[in-house]
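Intended use. Records like the one below are meant for learning the mapping from a protein sequence to its folded structure. Do not use them to infer anything beyond what is encoded.
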Amino acid sequence: MEVQELFKYRQDILDASKDEDSFIRQEPVLSELLPYMLDAKVVDSEDITPSYFSPGHDNIKINAYTVNESQERLQLFIIDELSLDETTAEQELCVTLKADYERQFKKAIKFLNLSVKGTLSDKVQDSDGVVKSLIAKINSVEGLEQFDVIEIFLLTLTATVSNKGESIQLRKVHFEDDYLKVKYEKNNASITKDILILKKVIDLNFLANVIESRGNREPLTINFTRDFKKRIEVIQAADERNFASYLCVLDAEVISGLYKRYSSRLLEKNVRSFLQFKGVNKGIKETIRTKPEQFIAFNNGLTVTATNAIIKPYKKSQYLEALTDFQIVNGGQTTASIYFSHKEGLDISKVKVMAKINIAKDVAENDLDNLISNISQFSNTQSRVSNVDLRSKSPQLRTLKSLSDSVIAPSGFRWFFERAKGEFLTKVRHAGSNGNRLKKEFPRERRFTNMELAKYYSAWGNSPHLVKKGGEKIFRHFIEMIESEEEGKAKIQIDREFYEKLIAKIILFRQMEKIYGQGKNSLGQLRAAVIPYTLSVLYIHTDASESGKSFNLERIWKDEGIDYELQEYLKELMILMNELIKKYSASEDFNEYSKKPELWESIKECEEIQGLMKKNSTLSIFKKYTVSL
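Structure written out for the chain above:
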């Protein structure tokens, strides 16, 4: 792709990030880029906690953070604000030196170092409660024990290029690992730990790659020789036209190291998520503890897929050096259990695991999906596998796409459903001179992606903690709600009525985002949690209640908005919810705790909500916005 094409994508991001005064703000830029990161599987969820901190001195900055699903990885986000300046010449937006990025990474690394030392908290204002909470977590024994990896993402609207040769060439840049050395006291013992720091640039090159791949993952390449200093002997078991298979034995230290470095990216196409040490996982842990030498006999091992392998001979044997597009499609629980057992202090030095490596040759993405699904389904004997989990291209989503293409809203406009992230921008690019017409026809407020669809639909329900988690968690929850495991059958009829109510839910959710606001003028710092929790309260007291009344979503569809009275009521309810999340949280990190079902159980029947349901404002809204079933 030409550099000039990248700058068109840059302008699209900038245009989508402008406020009413056409001022480009950093937080919307982050919101625009996160879905691309999610599609590429470099993050687990688009749900992050905004925590802007840049005191203007000391060369320190962060914009947001999140903690991954299995809790061992802290991810920090910083935005290159200079790359957002529309007056900057394109030549200046072409970055050739890795050092330019390193200088920005140092801002986040300094934030970490000062947080660990305990010298940063006094520099943070009391109003910046989220930042103070993060600093306290990093500085605590709990945080230092919890985090094994800190991943820093630099989000920049620049192109990374090389000037070597006759023309400018796009290139990737790789950053060496860093380590944060920490010491803390626990049970009267002094503990030293090295926390791995990983750095990744999310630039225009990255954005274009995701768009061009139509949302397919960024292939994961693992070099075992370089990263683990191990010679892994392999035996070739098959060599067919479309695939080859190898067998090997992996040391548990290698498996643990893989999970530490790549976390859930290893398991992206695995059919099950890691469920702590329940069931088979408990057995894995017990075997590691009591009979580590026999682990290889008791465990089914790993099944790995890749699209390319580097195998090299050494002393009459074959050794695995690297795998491209590495995925563990069976044995994800084994992988995660080994890592967390090691994290708990169990000795894994005597544990070995059998692995079967399947190399797909010249296989298209869809064919690779089908191959992995079949491998997962037929080789998996540890627990039941859901056919819904294995379906990567949902027929229900195709029906929704058809409806978005055909159904016209009362105002005469249509909505655009992006089944793959970047689909709209690709359509704009292909439209050439008609691209601007498409942008006007489908502004950002009338477009939604797969992940947004899952979030908006599920928010009108009884699981706001899952909505808060976002990402693959809520998407899988959504697919399981609308699809049956039986081929050709569906749990929910996707028709025009469903579609109109879906659009009404999107309008309602996005209107609430505007009411809550962002930054200094917002109702608080918990928007991503407050909105689904508020909607769930409305749902359980209307559609899910025994009143025989349902919320009138058809009215929102017809009006394509909500009136002033409902806006004021939602504002009242969100202000209350903001306080309830703080009151009933068992952690000072309210955003993270709002992902737990325990918080929702505490809030949904609390006395404050019961009191609000009896107020005149509630009775008035329910009279106006509910209809008989």
